[in-house]
Amino acid sequence: MDLEPLGTEGQYSDLPADAVNAGIESYNLIQFAIPVGIGFRYRLNQVFDLSIELGMRYTFTDYLDDVSANYIDSGLLPNELARELADRSQELTSAESGTARDFDVIGAITSDRNNDGFFDGYGSEFTDNFRGNKDDNDLYFVTSIKLAYIIGATFRRAKFR
Question: Is the distance from CB of 114 to CB of 39 less than 8 angstroms?
Answer without folding.
Answer: no
